[in-house]
Design a protein that fits this description.
Length: 192
Amino acid sequence: MRRICVFCGSTSGVNGAYTGAAAALGRVLAEQGIGIVFGGGATGVMGALADAALAVGGEVIGVLPAAMNLPGGVHPRLTTVHVVDAMHTRKALMHRLADAFIALPGGLGTLDELFEVLTLSQLGYQPKPIGLLNVEGYFDPLLTLIDHAVSHGFVRPENRGVFTVAADPEALLAQLRRFVHPLASSVMPPSI
């Protein structure tokens, strides 16, 4: 894996563990020579992720729509910044630049980005590994909801396997490296 796209919040949340986990992930990725693709923010969980990776010489690529390219909002020390026309263009470029995806705690934007790659993965358009860094159980309610959807027949059991979960950055990275897409035996459509 050359680069991992990280979805995360532009605020810190109510728990300092979220920014701490982001910093730990940023450091681990950079130390292992894995670049980061993310939303380009300077604050919150995003800022902690970027700061930690950059502090140890990591590659950090920001991708943001022109409407969000505001002074103070974009991290000032990124390796590369891509300014695009719209959110859809942003997500498509982030997908192309990354070899895997990790979601950290975040809000609606983070969940939107996560569910888009989960949906593309279950449809076979995106066979790249997806992981949730479950900091202090942040994603537990989401995992319960997904399991509920499986038990009610709205999500196929094999599609529950398109992502992995860990509470530790190094453990999650190890799982992503071992990932085999559950639909790999079927013909995957061309990526979007």
